[in-house]
Amino acid sequence: METRRVRYNGQGFSLKGEKDRFVLPPDFRKALKESGDGRKELCLQLHPTLTCLVAFGLSREAELDLQLDREEENALRRGEPFNRQLRSSQLFGFLKVPFDDSGRFVLPARFVKGARITDRLYFQGAGPEFLIFNPDELMTLDPTDWRHAQLACEDLAEDALAKAKR
């Protein structure tokens, strides 16, 4: 498979629906399908420092070895320790989660627990990947860094709740 750079930008929001399913935002779903040559799989892992999930498409897997090599080289150049096995387990410890044509997917229990997910998800594009937050966890982050996402999340949550009431 030819490596294709897929980028995730924008934001999205999902309320938990029937059968404990969430829905991927349409733009993210489209990019995920492109990343997987039509396969409908979402790669998920816990973020190493934030209480959220990191998500990406299948094509990103091919880039992870290069990222690992680059991070090790940078650490060595700066004279810092680098635990290749630990970082490799962080990068390659993702799980492939299927989604349907409508973007519906079920989060495995370990991710629900690890990211403190309840009944809502906020999606934040981050270039080669995107972040998935429990909105309550997002609101605890420093607004100096995260205000753009916090405001977007508030707006999208209001819209989703208004639609759900109809």
Strand content: 15-25%
Order of helices and strands: EEHEEHHEEHEEHH
Largest beta-sheet characterization: 6 strands, antiparallel
Quote the average pLDDT: 93
Specify the structural class. alpha+beta
Give Rg in angstroms. 17 Å
Q: Please state the overall shape, judged from the principal axes of the Cα atoms.
A: globular
Q: Order of strands side by side in the largest beta sheet?
A: 1-7-8-4-3-5
Q: Helical amount among residues, as a percent range?
A: 40-55%
Task: Give the N-terminus to C-terminus distance in angstroms.
Answer: 44 Å
Number of strands: 8
Model regions low in confidence, pLDDT < 50 over at least 5 residues:
none
What is the count of helical runs? 6
Can you walk through the features of this model?
By secondary structure, this protein is α+β, with helices and mostly antiparallel strands. Helix content is 42%, strand content 21%. It has 6 helices and 8 strands; from the N terminus they run ββαββααββαββαα. It has helices at residues 26-35, 61-77, 84-92, 109-114, 135-138, 143-165, and strands at 11-15, 21-23, 41-46, 53-56, 95-98, 104-106, 120-125, 130-133. The protein has a 6-stranded antiparallel β-sheet. It has a two-stranded antiparallel sheet with strand order 2-6. The chain is globular, with a radius of gyration of 17 Å. 27% of the residues are buried.
